[in-house]
Each structure stands twice: as structure tokens, then as C-alpha cells.
UniProtKB/TrEMBL annotation:
Has a role in promoting intracellular calcium ion sequestration via the exchange of calcium ions for hydrogen ions across the vacuolar membrane. Involved also in manganese ion homeostasis via its uptake into the vacuole. Belongs to the Ca(2+):cation antiporter (CaCA) (TC 2.A.19) family. It comes from Lophium mytilinum. Residues 1-57 are annotated as: Disordered. Residues 41-57 have a biased composition (Basic and acidic residues). This is Vacuolar calcium ion transporter. Its main location: membrane. Gene3D superfamilies: NCX, central ion-binding region. GO terms for cellular component: endomembrane system; fungal-type vacuole membrane.
Length: 460
């Protein structure tokens, strides 16, 4: 094909007549009905791949693969990749010195960050190859793999880890809504006095979070109400505990259904609206030309990177979870602090880095889509999933959260909702969100475990 006849992205497709060779008769079947497309880097676009995700290569090229993965999505993500030597060190120490409990926990905690970052980067590269709305959903889902793996490892260990899982569920949402969103507001405020975002992203996200928060805490409110009533004195507490478990499982099924409706809303009925909002946001990206020109992973390399990262995350999660008992019993760290603060910080590292970089580049709609999308997925998908898996394993996993955790969640949703209501953000709102998160972290650090509360106050 002649160079002059290339069809670049953004041009109108050639008509069928222009694609038919001049010498062909009207009865002949036209060949080359459509001319191939070429993206911004001059690479021919593969069928089924979006132009922005076209790498111009196929298969796996080890040197390019390593170089592209190390460069990652931004300078912040690239700086995290210097921690990769900690990954083999953490695995080696687990097998070589199993009695070094604190060292194993610390090394695996650090090792989780680069492994999670690779999942985030590979997910972002894969998301570039599909339509934008579906890509954001895919990227958010892949970013939650670390959280899902941690939940599954914890629930497999039995009833002893249920308090940590409950705290981690709410801690993940709090880290997204307060710490990550606050940091996004601060990062965006460094270059702009005020940033704006579309109501379809902010209002739908904050509204869903309020409904999800109500669904999550309803079983806890039921349990606390019947426990503190006169019914507790009549020996019916065990029966109501079983009812709380049934309510939690029914709620999990309802929340899972609501997540499916939300996905259908985004990808089918209102995909055009979301697509327009995200495309308009891309036009505001300060370094868009640089991002487009960067080398990209092939589809195969994306899959390989995801498999490597998920394998590392799974091992690290197992080693990390095994040390939680030591941390709680020997070091006196509360279940609330481990679940509410420590685990969410490391499991959401990749999503936080991505969202902060997008806010810094003035892509607040993308940042909000990742922050609120991750929170919605934790509340409406990951939580029901761990409830249902626990149901299958015979583990007493319910939604009877500590009243402290439940109240903090609802207050955080209300605080963030008030900041999103006007469709604008600034660094002051970001600082306030981070400060609220710090207050919750301090409270969680001193929050006693159930056994300690029984020792000081007595248990009925």
C-alpha cells in the first residue's frame, strides 16, 4: 500500500467506492473495503485495539518489557519500582528465618507496594486497548486484586481473622475517600486555584457510597440494637447473633446485585455520557502528548505482567497475613489499626498513585472515577464476595462492624459528599480530608481489642 493512502486516526473512513481498485468491475467483490488505520506514532492499529493502546509490536520483547514496566505511568510510580529488590528478599527471609516475625512483616509490607504498582501499571496499559469507560472499570477492578487476595487469604485462615477483615473493609473505603481523595485535591491544588469535575462522576459516585454505607452498617445497627435491649437479658443473644449473620448474607447478595446494575449503567445505558466526560478530561491533560508518545506494552506483555504481579502479591499476602497474629498479640497492635489503617494503605497503593498523578495533570474526572470507583467496588463487590466465600467455608463472616468503624464510615461519606456537591475542589478541602483521616488513624491505634475491653469493662 502506498504511504500516501494511509488513514490516520481522526480522519473520516474512506467510502467503499474509493476502496475498490479502479480496474474492478461492478460485479466483482471489492477487496480492501477499508484502509488500515495508523495511530499517533505511525503504528498500524490492530483490529479490536484502541489506537492509544497500540504498541506496534506483538508477542513479548524482554528488554523492552522490563524497560517499559520500570518507567511505569509517572515519576511517582517509577520511584516505587526501586523497591523491587525487597520482593525476593521478603520471600527469602520468610523461608530462611521463619522466627523473624517482625522483619518478615515489615519486608512483605514494603514488598507489596511495587507488586501492587505493577498490577496498576499493567491494568492501565490493558485499559488503553479497550473503550474508555470499560477501560476505567477494568483498571479499577484489576487495582482491587490486591484487596481481594488479602481478603481471601484472611478468610481462609478462619474466624480468628474476621475482625481484621471487617476493619479492612471499612479502612479501604476510608483510605480512598479521605486519604487518596484528599491527596488528589492537594496535588491538583498545587497548579490550579480550583479544579472542577462533572456531576455525573461525583454525584453518582457519592450517592452510591451513601447507599452502600447504609447497606454495610444496617446489620451492625440491628445487632447493637438487640444486644443493648432487654432481649439480651432473656438469653436470646445467640439467636439474634445467628439472625445478624443471615441479614449480612442477604445484604451481601443485594449489594452484589446493585454493583451489577451500576456496571450496566456505566457500560450500556449511559456509556456515551461517561465516555464524553472522560474524553473531555483527556484534552486537559498537561502531558498528554508525552503519554501518547511513550512505548506501550503489547497485549501479551500486559497479561505476563499481570500474572507475575498477581503471583508476587499472592505470596506476599500469605506471608503478611501469617504475621498479623504476632503483631496483635506480641506487639500489642490493635486489630482496628491493622485492618483500618495498615492493610488498606498497602493494598490501595497502586490506585492511589494513579489517581494522584491524574489529579496533578488536571484530570479530576479520571481521578474521581478511580477513587470513587474503587470505593464502590470495595463496598458493593469485594465485601459481598468475602461474605459469600465465608458462607461457603463455614466462617462466621458478617457485617456486624464495630460501632466505631461504622460511625467513622458514615461520617466520612458525608464529609466527602459535602466537598463534592459543588463540583469544585481546592487544596484546603484536600488538607481537611487528610487531617480527618489522621484523626481516625490515631483513634484506631488506641482502640482496644474485644478481649481487652472485656478485661477492663467486663463482658455480659
Amino acid at each position: 500500500m502506498a504511504r500516501g493512502s494511509r488513514q490516520f486516526v481522526g480522519e473520516e473512513p474512506k467510502s467503499e467506492a474509493s476502496a475498490v481498485p479502479p480496474h474492478s468491475s461492478s460485479g466483482d467483490a471489492p477487496r480492501n473495503r477499508f484502509l488500515p488505520r495508523f495511530n499517533h506514532n505511525g503504528h498500524e492499529v490492530t483490529k479490536g485495539i484502541e489506537p492509544e493502546g497500540e504498541s506496534g509490536r506483538k508477542g513479548v520483547h524482554p528488554i523492552k518489557f522490563l524497560r517499559i514496566c520500570f518507567r511505569s505511568t509517572s515519576r511517582l510510580s517509577k520511584s516505587v519500582n526501586v523497591l523491587w529488590p525487597v520482593v525476593p528478599a521478603a520471600i527469602a527471609v520468610h523461608f530462611a528465618r521463619p522466627d523473624w516475625h517482625l522483619a518478615i512483616f515489615v519486608l512483605n509490607y514494603i514488598a507489596m507496594v511495587p507488586a501492587a504498582n505493577l498490577i496498576g501499571f499493567a491494568g492501565q496499559e490493558l485499559a488503553r486497548k479497550v473503550p474508555k469507560v470499560f477501560g476505567v472499570i477494568m483498571e479499577t477492578t484489576l487495582g482491587s486484586i490486591v484487596e481481594i487476595v488479602l481478603f481471601m487469604v484472611l478468610i481462609k485462615k478462619g474466624d480468628g481473622n474476621v475482625p481484621v477483615i471487617k476493619a479492612a473493609i471499612l479502612g479501604s473505603i476510608l483510605a480512598n475517600l479521605l486519604l487518596c481523595l484528599g491527596t488528589c485535591f492537594i496535588a491538583g491544588g498545587l497548579h490550579h486555584d480550583e479544579q472542577s469535575f462533572h456531576e455525573v462522576v461525583s454525584e453518582v459516585g457519592s450517592g452510591l457510597m451513601l447507599v452502600a454505607g447504609m447497606g454495610l452498617v444496617a446489620p451492625a445497627v440491628f445487632s447493637k440494637a438487640v444486644t443493648s435491649s432487654e432481649l439480651n437479658q432473656s438469653g436470646l443473644l445467640t439467636a439474634f447473633d445467628a439472625q445478624t449473620l443471615k441479614i449480612s448474607r442477604a445484604t451481601a447478595v443485594i449489594l452484589l446485585f446493585s454493583y451489577m446494575v451500576f456496571i450496566f449503567f456505566q457500560t450500556k445505558t449511559h456509556d456515551g455520557l461517561y465516555g464524553e466526560v472522560l474524553e473531555a478530561d483527556e484534552a486537559k491533560d498537561r502531558d498528554r502528548q508525552h503519554d501518547l508518545a511513550k512505548d506501550k506494552l503489547t497485549f501479551t506483555e500486559c497479561v505476563v505482567a499481570l500474572l507475575i504481579a498477581i503471583a508476587c502479591v499472592s505470596l506476599i499476602a500469605i506471608f503478611l497475613v501469617e504475621q498479623i497474629e504476632f503483631l496483635v498479640k506480641e506487639r500489642g497492635v490493635s486489630d482496628a489499626f491493622v485492618g483500618l489503617i495498615l492493610l488498606p494503605l498497602v493494598e490501595k497503593a497502586a490506585e492511589h498513585l494513579t489517581a494522584v498523578d491524574e489529579a496533578f495533570d488536571n484530570q479530576m474526572n479520571f481521578a474521581l472515577a478511580h477513587v470513587l470507583g474503587a470505593s464502590v467496588q470495595t463496598a458493593l463487590f469485594n465485601t459481598p464476595l468475602v461474605i459469600i466465600v465465608g458462607w461457603g467455608l463455614g466462617v462466621h463472616m458478617d457485617l456486624n462492624f464495630e460501632i466505631f468503624d461504622a460511625v467513622m464510615l458514615i461520617l466520612a461519606i458525608l464529609v466527602v459528599g459535602s466537598f463534592l456537591r459543588d463540583g469544585k475542589s481546592n487544596y484546603l478541602e484536600g488538607v481537611l480530608c487528610v487531617l480527618v483521616y489522621m484523626i481516625i488513624a490515631i483513634c484506631a491505634f488506641y482502640y482496644p481489642n474485644p478481649a481487652e475491653r472485656c478485661e477492663y469493662t467486663g463482658c455480659l
